[in-house]
Amino acid sequence: MTIVHLLRHGEVENPRGILYGRLPGFHLSELGVAMAKAAAQAVAERQIVHVVSSPLERAVQTAGPVAEQFGLSIHT
Prior knowledge:
By secondary structure, the protein is mostly helical. 36% of the residues lie in helices and 5% in strands. The chain is built from two helices and two strands. Strands 1-2 form a two-stranded parallel ribbon.
């Protein structure tokens, strides 16, 4: 059986309230980084063998802690 875990990116740093969509240069806020780390902790007991992310910076940043804790690369 294959189990797929889906994560949405954490909070984005966007002080000007721009509708950023697919615009480059929008990264996770400090809270977003904490959210990504918490998501990694939430799946720590799972058997994660592959990490795939959208190429958007905020998505890759969110996938980072999960990939790191399992010694995996992020595939975009």
